[in-house]
Amino acid sequence: MSKKPVRVRYYRFKNRLKEKAAGIGSDSKEIQAIDPEALARAEAALEQMAEDYPDWVKSIIDKLAAEHRRAVDTPHERRPIFERIRRIAHDMKGQGGTFGYPLITDFASSLHDFAGPNVGMTDNHVEIIKAHIDSMRVVINERIEGDGGQNGQMLKKGLQQAIEKYTRMK
Amino acid sequence: MAGLDLERMSVLVVEDSPFIRSLLINSLKILGVGKVVTKDHGGEAIEFIKLVHSDPMKAGLMTIDIIMSNWDMSPVDGMMLLRWVRRHKDSPDRYKPFVMITAYSEPNRVTEARDMGVTEFLTKPFTINAIAEKLTSIILHPRQFVHTKDYFGPDRRRQNLPFDGENRRKLTEESDEVEVIRV
Hints:
heterodimer, A: Four Helix Bundle (Hemerythrin (Met), subunit A), B: alpha/beta, five-stranded parallel sheet
């Protein structure tokens, strides 16, 4: 009887990365993880970088504000402008939480949704975009970290009210 | 317990956001990764991967050990890069460990990348521990590659878990239809 044709191939490799990571003269069987001290140093460095985060976000919010102005001035350009706003928002929402600003993540996430292709591009939508940008600016200028307690709740509520107001006006 | 020595490792980081890029570079460097090269999007990464293969002197790098790529970039995004690495005829190493960095964690997006042969996911916002975990898993517990008519990539079955019902796993390593290749 002839053999059936091969349908599955498993490729098993010699672990060269592990050999590479064992360091000179040490036994690759013994290595188990990244040195905890290196981890602690890296964590500290990330915290250091986190201190620059508000400045970075500020520059991004300025970019968003510039896009918003363009959306007001050149209504026929709104499709690509909204697309750019959406991309920026996507980027912001990924990192806010890491640096202690979950409100930035929340607002950026909402902005990302409102700048989406199926939401609309009327003047009221442009106002909703602006309300998001304003809210984020307050978070950064006032350094509202974490959930922001009462101030954070007020900001969230304010944005929600603005969204509802302009949504009703459609 | 000896720690991993990443001094001889080289990682290609593909990320369009300057802030996140510098964050990743610094995190990797402090974890001890010897060489970190960054590219702005998938297209640049593909050119660089080809250059490393064809002219390592000019590329300034002999090999790329691990690729870490953002998903959402333009014009060439992380999924397109992953597809190229795993499937394109010009790809010099289709088995390259590939970490997808993403703010998307919807199950269907995860499945999409897994079925394209992603090695690990790094979800934004990421932590140092998460990066270290992915590197450790890639270096210490690499998975075999599976090649079928529908799939090419690291074995999607990470564990052999017990299951209820009929055993529909017809093929075993002893079957004629299965070939084990040791590289």
